[in-house]
Each structure stands twice: as structure tokens, then as C-alpha cells.
Amino acid sequence: MDKAMIHHLKPTIWIGKRGCTEDIIDEIKRQVKDRKVIKVKWLRNTEIDPEAIATAAGADLVNVRGRTMVLAERTGRRQQGDSRNI
């Protein structure tokens, strides 16, 4: 997906003042499976780790800019849960 297409995506998930809960991770998983690429935004007063969220959701972190991240369906490079160095 090129940058122009990412730019025009609308956020489909908003992370609020409670932070990233298990329900949000489950929703991210569902949407990534259905849409292949999603945009997630979070509030200014909420601190999150985009890499940790991508890992928890089993998705690839495509881009982070400000308080917005783009997640994509994980490619076949490595399987979720496989932490071996080959």
C-alpha cells in the first residue's frame, strides 16, 4: 500500500482515556482480518506503544505519525508466536 492510499484512510479505531484494553486489541484483530489495513488514533493524554499494540494484535506496524498508526495484516515473513532466530 502506498503513502497516498494510507493518507486517505479514515481512522476506524479510537483509543480513549482508558488506554488500549483487551477489547480494543480484539477489535483491531477483527478489523485487520476483514479490511487488511486499518488506521488507529489515540487521545493526546493517552500514552501507548504502537509496536506493542501491533505485536499484541498480530499485525504489522506500517506507519506512525503523531497520534495515528496504520496497521496491516501480517505478511508471511514470520508467524505470530514464533520467536526463534533462524
From TrEMBL:
Coiled coil: none annotated. Keywords: RNA-binding. InterPro entries: RNA-binding_CRM (IPR001890), RNA-binding_domain (IPR051925), YhbY-like_sf (IPR035920). Residues 1-84 form the CRM domain. SMART domains: CRS1_YhbY. Gene3D superfamilies: YhbY-like (3.30.110.60). The keyword GTP-binding does not apply. SUPFAM superfamilies: YhbY-like. This is YhbY family RNA-binding protein.
